[in-house]
Amino acid sequence: MVTGITTAFGQVRLVWVSSASGSKIRQIFLPGDPHAGAVVDEGVTPVGEPRDEAVRALIAAIQSFLRGHDVRFEIDLLDLDRCPPFQRRVLLTEYGIPRGHVSTYGRIARHIGNPGASRAVGSALARNPFPLVIPCHRALRSDGRLGGFQAGLDMKRRLLEMEGVRFREDGRVLMEKTWY
After folding, report:
1. Taking the model in full, what pTM does it have?
2. Tens digit of pLDDT for each residue in 15-54?
3. CB atoms within 10 A of CB 57
């Protein structure tokens, strides 16, 4: 099933499945993601307001987060089993970066025990199926440049600014609060 979430940034789409054991989030599409439209084309059922309370709570949390509130998302609802083991480790590590802090692809690689894997970390985050909930916007290049982001660098910068992260005049992040 897929639900559109209206935010100040644009339409966020949440894709999930329901089963007897509960709902699982399969993917979150940020505004401007060209793949979001293909989900409906692939037979995913669009729904309005979900009945599942956990999904409704996640939608409310995403809306609150995108309004600038301090939200700590729960990840139990995420279908992390769909991710390969390396990506799962990267995503769980990224999830641990608190609001207002940043890290670098290299720091994350070292933290997970793969010091030479900064590009692989960047690739794993570029394919993050759960942006916002797993805050991949908090990962940067080692020189403080933003790197990439599924919804574009403007949104990444705005999210970081909402969290209190400051920038230099040249657009690089002031690495005042780094994690890992």
Report:
1. 0.91
2. 999 878 889 999 999 998 876 666 554 555 666 677 889 9
3. 12
Helix (H) or strand (E) holding 140: strand 139-140
| CA dihedral sign of residues 138, 17, 36, 58 | negative
**Is 136 one of the catalytic residues?**
yes
Per-residue pLDDT tens digits for 83-97 = 999 999 999 999 999
- CB-based contact 15:29 (threshold 8 Å): yes
Catalytic residue among 83, 90, 136, 173: 136
CATH of region 83-162, choose from 1.10.10.10, 3.30.420.40, 3.30.70.260, 3.30.2310.20: 1.10.10.10
